[in-house]
Every structure is written in C-alpha cells, then in structure tokens.
Please model this.
Amino acid sequence: MIGQPSKIIRLKVHEISKLQADGTQYLLILKEVDGKMLMPVLLDKREAEDLLFASNREPKFHAPWTRIMKSLGTELGFVVEGVILTEIRGTRYMAQVQLLHNGVNFSMEMDAIQAIIMALAFRCPIFIEEALFAQQHSHSDAQGAVSLPISTLTLPMLEDVLRDALRDENYELASHIRDEIKRRR
Model:
C-alpha cells in the first residue's frame, strides 16, 4: 500500500453494541488481529446500521454511497486495498483509503467510520498507525467493559461525565474533564 506509515497495526471489527438505552449512541470495538488490545469508537445509529449491514457475509450495502462505490469499483476496475486510521480531528477518527487502479496506487482521506464500512464492503484489511493506537487503545475489564478515550467524547458527553464525577466526589477526574472542556471551547 502506498503512503503506508512505518508502523501500523492490523485491526478487525470485534463488536458493535448500543452505548445508550435510547439507541442513539453505539460503540464499535476494534481489536488487534495479533493481540488483545481494543479500540472503542463512538457511532451514531445510522453508522452502526451501515456497519452491521456491511459486515454481513453477503452485504446488502445499506448505505447508498457504499453501493455506488462498490459499483464504481467493479465498473472502473479499482480495488480498495486497505484502510489506515491516521488521526483524530475534533472527536472523529480520520482514515486513508488505499486504492489501486490500472496499476497506480493512490489514497483518499475520509471519516474513519465510512472507511471501515468501505473496508468491510470490499473485504480488505483495516489498520491503524501505531502511535494513534498507543494513545487510543483500551483494555476490557473483568466484566468486559471498555473505557473510551477522552478525545473521542463529545462536549455533551464530557459535561455528563463531569456531573457524574462531581456527584461521586471524584475530583481528580472532574478536574481532568473540566480541563478538557475548557481546551475545546
């Protein structure tokens, strides 16, 4: 793959689950192919549905753009070789989609969730830059719970966490969350 960073880690989709009872937030858990580290990614309902459809053995390509890309790939003869998660912008992961067309390699930047959906649709590998994975990975506890990296939480989520931390008198966490909220505003 072109433009490949020096060190990358291969990931696979491990799980997609509801994060909130009202079904508005979901959690995608990516797992190292050759390890135990996990990486949680927040999703909205539509993204979760698109991921679930794309991960089927015979994908239905629920997302119209996925059907379009798959058709274009077939008609124009390009191949999606892989997806590399590269950075966080705001609270969203970004990725490079690595493409091959007529023997020429090129890449296209897009939102990581859309890139992962594309990887599932085209049955190609998903990678993450090692430095980003080191910052964002998580371990599951004995109950299987996974913590979210603070950089992926939205402001309303941070405000909820701050209220909970203050209510529970966890002032160290409250201070950390308050600083993150101030940094973003």
About this structure: The CA atoms of residues 54 and 121 lie 5 Å apart. The beta strands are 8-18, 25-32, 38-44, 78-89, 92-101, 104-111, 126-129. The mean pLDDT is 80.
